[in-house]
Design brief:
alpha+beta; Phosphorylase Kinase, domain 1; D-amino Acid Aminotransferase, Chain A, domain 1; 2 domains; 6-stranded antiparallel β-sheet; 5-stranded antiparallel β-sheet; Phosphoribosylaminoimidazole-succinocarboxamide synthase; EC 6.3.2.6
């Protein structure tokens, strides 16, 4: 088998040339980074879990009419996706105060926001993905006004669906990030959802205990990252309840750490 041509490598994924024109293969790594890659590590098995979780969520979103780049999962770590022109804007959807929002505005973490807030960041690792406004986006031509309307509408639709999905399995969707891309039909560009949706890019808290079930466990040196990701997968019905692949109970994890 010929060696695949690598198109791009990011902090959590590698993109390879796809088997057909207009497709790519997205490979999920176990690498973990935080604070714009100032903190680096590995979460064993993270790539496998994120691949499976993202496949599940993108499939559900596709079923309700949200256009995405996802085509199908190929194996434990790879999925086939449509090649898109990535819009250089990261969209952060916030339902609950946490992370940088709490620090910037002095709002206690865990405070329910009066309404869902959309924030935008310019995708540039060297600059640390700085926050930007609609004015910046328009002035520098990163996306048209029509595209930004589509992006905002899709972000709210995704948030409404995911908030209900996670609430149904006892998880509070605190915030999450989204990326979008353009696909072209002659001269007409259409916005679709791209990248991934997984515990790497979401803040997910247990609704009863406020236990963090996401990458904050890595960011804040809480430990139990693998168990947290597995717990999300288990509640979504992607891991069996028993057997060797059963997750460790988060309460058991805390007890082992003497907390």
């Amino acid at each position: 088998m010929a060696r695949r041509r690598q198109i791009y490598e990011g902090k959590a994924k590698i993109l390879y040339e796809g088997p057909e024109p207009g497709t790519l293969i997205q490979y999920f790594k176990d690498d973990a980074t935080a604070f714009n890659a100032q903190k680096k590590g590995t979460i064993n098995g993270k790539g496998v879990l994120n691949n499976r979780i993202s496949e599940h969520i993108f499939t559900l979103l596709g079923n309700i009419g949200v256009p995405t780049h996802f085509i199908r999962r190929l194996n434990m770590r790879e999925q086939l996706i449509r090649q898109v022109e990535i819009v250089p804007i990261e969209v952060i959807v916030r339902n609950v105060a946490a992370g940088s929002l709490s620090k910037r505005l002095g709002i206690e973490e865990g405070t329910q926001l009066p309404r869902t807030i959309l924030e935008y960041c310019y995708k540039d690792d060297a600059l640390g993905d700085p926050m930007i406004s609609d004015e910046h986006i328009a002035a520098f031509g990163w996306a048209s006004q029509e595209e930004m309307h589509d992006i905002a509408d899709l972000a709210i639709r995704v948030n409404d669906f995911l908030s209900g999905l996670f609430a149904g399995i006892g998880i509070r969707l605190v915030d999450f990030k989204l990326e979008f891309g353009r696909i072209w039909d002659n001269d007409y560009g259409r916005i679709i959802l791209a990248d991934e949706i997984s515990p790497d890019g979401c803040r997910l808290w247990d609704m009863t205990t406020n236990e963090k079930l996401d990458k904050d466990r890595f960011r804040r040196d809480l430990g139990g990252e693998v168990e947290a990701y597995q717990e999300v997968a288990r509640r979504l019905g992607l891991l069996p309840e028993g057997g060797e692949t059963a997750v460790l109970d988060m309460a058991e994890h805390r007890e082992k750490r003497g907390k």
